[in-house]
Amino acid sequence: MLILGIDPGSLRTGWGAVLKDGPDLKAVEAGTIVCPASDALPARLARLSRGIGEVVDRLEPAAAVLESPFHGMNARSLIVLAQARGALIATLALRGLEVREFTPAEVKAAVTGNGRAGKDQVARMVRLLLAWRGECSHDASDALAVALCCAQRLRMDRLSETPAKGAKLRFRKALAVSGTP
After folding, report:
1. Catalytic residue IDs
2. Which of 17, 42, 91, 122 lies 20 to 30 A from 143 at CA?
3. What's the CA gap between 160 and 153, in Å, rounded?
Protein backbone atom coordinates (compact mmCIF):
# COMPACT_ATOMS: atom_id res chain seq x y z
CA MET A 1 0.00 0.00 0.00
CA LEU A 2 1.37 3.40 -1.00
CA ILE A 3 0.79 6.21 1.52
CA LEU A 4 1.31 9.85 0.58
CA GLY A 5 2.38 12.02 3.51
CA ILE A 6 2.01 15.79 3.29
CA ASP A 7 3.48 18.56 5.44
CA PRO A 8 1.34 21.52 4.37
CA GLY A 9 2.47 25.10 4.11
CA SER A 10 1.48 28.11 2.02
CA LEU A 11 5.05 28.70 0.81
CA ARG A 12 6.60 25.22 1.09
CA THR A 13 4.62 21.98 1.14
CA GLY A 14 6.58 18.79 1.64
CA TRP A 15 5.36 15.45 0.33
CA GLY A 16 6.68 11.93 0.65
CA ALA A 17 5.44 8.51 -0.44
CA VAL A 18 6.00 5.42 1.71
CA LEU A 19 5.28 1.90 0.50
CA LYS A 20 3.95 -0.42 3.20
CA ASP A 21 4.31 -4.06 2.26
CA GLY A 22 3.35 -6.09 5.33
CA PRO A 23 5.82 -5.06 8.03
CA ASP A 24 8.26 -3.58 5.50
CA LEU A 25 8.36 0.18 4.89
CA LYS A 26 10.18 1.81 1.97
CA ALA A 27 10.45 5.44 0.88
CA VAL A 28 9.45 5.72 -2.76
CA GLU A 29 9.84 9.41 -3.49
CA ALA A 30 9.81 12.78 -1.71
CA GLY A 31 9.84 16.41 -2.67
CA THR A 32 8.74 19.95 -1.92
CA ILE A 33 6.27 22.21 -3.72
CA VAL A 34 7.71 25.71 -3.44
CA CYS A 35 5.53 28.79 -3.95
CA PRO A 36 7.15 32.20 -4.38
CA ALA A 37 6.30 34.53 -1.51
CA SER A 38 5.80 37.30 -4.07
CA ASP A 39 2.82 35.44 -5.62
CA ALA A 40 -0.66 36.34 -4.41
CA LEU A 41 -2.32 33.75 -2.17
CA PRO A 42 -4.74 32.50 -4.88
CA ALA A 43 -1.79 31.81 -7.21
CA ARG A 44 0.05 29.95 -4.44
CA LEU A 45 -3.04 27.86 -3.65
CA ALA A 46 -3.41 27.00 -7.34
CA ARG A 47 0.26 25.97 -7.49
CA LEU A 48 -0.17 23.76 -4.40
CA SER A 49 -3.28 22.12 -5.82
CA ARG A 50 -1.69 21.54 -9.23
CA GLY A 51 1.55 20.25 -7.67
CA ILE A 52 -0.04 17.76 -5.30
CA GLY A 53 -2.45 16.69 -8.05
CA GLU A 54 0.50 15.85 -10.32
CA VAL A 55 2.12 13.82 -7.51
CA VAL A 56 -1.10 11.88 -6.87
CA ASP A 57 -1.69 11.24 -10.58
CA ARG A 58 1.87 9.95 -11.03
CA LEU A 59 2.20 7.82 -7.86
CA GLU A 60 -1.45 6.71 -7.41
CA PRO A 61 -1.33 6.35 -3.61
CA ALA A 62 -4.00 4.40 -1.75
CA ALA A 63 -4.25 7.03 1.00
CA ALA A 64 -3.05 10.50 1.92
CA VAL A 65 -2.21 11.84 5.34
CA LEU A 66 -1.52 15.41 6.44
CA GLU A 67 0.11 16.91 9.48
CA SER A 68 -2.44 19.05 11.31
CA PRO A 69 -1.47 22.58 12.35
CA PHE A 70 -0.04 23.21 15.79
CA HIS A 71 -1.74 25.71 18.08
CA GLY A 72 1.19 28.04 18.69
CA MET A 73 0.72 29.92 15.41
CA ASN A 74 -0.48 33.50 15.15
CA ALA A 75 -3.99 34.03 13.75
CA ARG A 76 -2.88 35.34 10.34
CA SER A 77 -0.48 32.43 9.75
CA LEU A 78 -3.12 29.94 10.89
CA ILE A 79 -5.70 31.36 8.45
CA VAL A 80 -3.28 31.20 5.50
CA LEU A 81 -2.22 27.65 6.48
CA ALA A 82 -5.89 26.63 6.73
CA GLN A 83 -6.47 27.89 3.19
CA ALA A 84 -3.44 25.94 1.91
CA ARG A 85 -4.65 22.81 3.70
CA GLY A 86 -8.11 23.31 2.20
CA ALA A 87 -6.69 23.46 -1.32
CA LEU A 88 -4.64 20.31 -0.71
CA ILE A 89 -7.49 18.36 0.93
CA ALA A 90 -9.93 19.31 -1.84
CA THR A 91 -7.45 18.15 -4.49
CA LEU A 92 -6.93 14.83 -2.70
CA ALA A 93 -10.67 14.30 -2.18
CA LEU A 94 -11.42 15.05 -5.84
CA ARG A 95 -9.06 12.18 -6.71
CA GLY A 96 -10.98 9.82 -4.41
CA LEU A 97 -8.36 9.50 -1.68
CA GLU A 98 -9.17 9.01 1.96
CA VAL A 99 -7.46 11.78 3.90
CA ARG A 100 -6.22 11.26 7.45
CA GLU A 101 -4.54 13.73 9.81
CA PHE A 102 -2.07 13.47 12.67
CA THR A 103 -0.80 16.15 15.03
CA PRO A 104 2.89 17.05 14.99
CA ALA A 105 3.29 15.45 18.44
CA GLU A 106 1.71 12.18 17.22
CA VAL A 107 4.03 12.10 14.21
CA LYS A 108 7.14 12.85 16.28
CA ALA A 109 6.19 10.22 18.88
CA ALA A 110 5.56 7.58 16.21
CA VAL A 111 8.87 8.23 14.44
CA THR A 112 11.24 9.12 17.30
CA GLY A 113 9.45 7.97 20.45
CA ASN A 114 9.42 11.59 21.65
CA GLY A 115 6.47 13.89 20.90
CA ARG A 116 8.72 16.94 21.39
CA ALA A 117 11.56 15.86 19.07
CA GLY A 118 13.21 18.51 16.90
CA LYS A 119 13.26 18.60 13.10
CA ASP A 120 16.81 17.26 12.93
CA GLN A 121 15.95 14.27 15.13
CA VAL A 122 12.85 13.52 13.03
CA ALA A 123 14.88 13.76 9.82
CA ARG A 124 17.55 11.45 11.24
CA MET A 125 14.98 8.82 12.27
CA VAL A 126 13.20 9.03 8.90
CA ARG A 127 16.54 8.31 7.19
CA LEU A 128 17.19 5.37 9.53
CA LEU A 129 13.71 3.83 9.40
CA LEU A 130 13.41 4.11 5.63
CA ALA A 131 17.11 3.68 4.73
CA TRP A 132 16.69 6.94 2.79
CA ARG A 133 19.87 8.00 1.01
CA GLY A 134 18.58 10.82 -1.19
CA GLU A 135 18.60 14.52 -0.47
CA CYS A 136 15.56 15.65 1.44
CA SER A 137 14.38 19.06 2.67
CA HIS A 138 12.96 19.33 6.19
CA ASP A 139 9.52 19.73 4.60
CA ALA A 140 9.87 16.49 2.60
CA SER A 141 11.37 14.69 5.61
CA ASP A 142 8.43 15.80 7.75
CA ALA A 143 6.04 14.51 5.07
CA LEU A 144 7.80 11.12 5.06
CA ALA A 145 7.46 11.11 8.86
CA VAL A 146 3.70 11.74 8.53
CA ALA A 147 3.42 8.81 6.09
CA LEU A 148 5.44 6.62 8.48
CA CYS A 149 3.13 7.55 11.35
CA CYS A 150 0.13 6.55 9.25
CA ALA A 151 1.74 3.25 8.22
CA GLN A 152 2.43 2.41 11.86
CA ARG A 153 -1.14 3.24 12.88
CA LEU A 154 -2.89 1.33 10.09
CA ARG A 155 -3.08 -1.99 11.85
CA MET A 156 -4.45 -0.51 15.07
CA ASP A 157 -6.95 1.67 13.20
CA ARG A 158 -8.09 -1.26 11.08
CA LEU A 159 -8.85 -3.31 14.16
CA SER A 160 -10.92 -0.55 15.75
CA GLU A 161 -12.90 0.57 12.66
CA THR A 162 -16.54 -0.29 12.18
CA PRO A 163 -17.77 -1.36 8.74
CA ALA A 164 -18.13 1.62 6.43
CA LYS A 165 -18.91 2.48 2.83
CA GLY A 166 -17.11 4.47 0.18
CA ALA A 167 -13.53 5.62 0.70
CA LYS A 168 -13.04 3.78 4.01
CA LEU A 169 -14.10 0.51 2.42
CA ARG A 170 -11.72 1.10 -0.53
CA PHE A 171 -8.98 1.90 1.98
CA ARG A 172 -9.55 -1.37 3.87
CA LYS A 173 -9.59 -3.31 0.58
CA ALA A 174 -6.25 -1.72 -0.31
CA LEU A 175 -4.91 -2.87 3.06
CA ALA A 176 -6.08 -6.42 2.37
CA VAL A 177 -4.47 -6.45 -1.09
CA SER A 178 -1.17 -5.08 0.27
CA GLY A 179 -0.95 -7.93 2.78
CA THR A 180 -1.18 -5.72 5.86
CA PRO A 181 -2.36 -7.85 8.80
Report:
1. 7, 67, 139
2. 42
3. 11
